[in-house]
Amino acid sequence: MCGRYTLTASAEDIAAEFGVDVPADFVPRYNIAPQQPVAVIGLDAGGRPRLAFLRWGLVPWWASPEQARSGPINARAETVASKPTFRDAFRERRCLIIADGFYEWKREGRARIPFRFRMRDDALFAFAGLWERWERGGETLHTCAIVTTAASGVVAPIHDRMPAILERGARDRWIDPGADSASLHALLAPSDDPALDSYPVSRLVNYVANESPACIEPA
Fold it and tell me: N or C end: fewer C-beta atoms under 10 angstroms in the chain?
């Protein structure tokens, strides 16, 4: 799964990598947690990529007001096209969720040791994401979830699941409204990316209130 991640890059670097406008008040994030606003990229009405901030935790359009208080943060690649919570979004509302690292925890006895995973060159990347719009009684929510797949490479010894990371050449295809299901599923297959690296970090990341560069310092 993916329950915590980072986006520590500058607004300028994000704009250069993804070709989108980034708000001037954007601030780096070191411990992004569920139910918080996260940076995603989708297509606007004119088919151009646009950055927006959506709440992490997908609420399907048909959810009750009670269900809308929170939603699943991850969607399994194996069932994303068939599970009612995700199938409409998979078919019609796919997005890129921007990151430059993510955390997973390794159990050692009773302890849970946090690890940060990143590209060896600290490059930005994109998770495969889904988004939804929920409306009731004048209230509108825009929410999202990260698609996960079976872990491979450096992630597998730590956890059995990982976010589906899209290669640069696959990003446009993932958000293409005309893409077919088979080609989309191919993008979600586990890959042993040699560029991905990991290292243990401070247990500061165990608490969502902690939000500083200290969270990504090697332990």
Answer: C
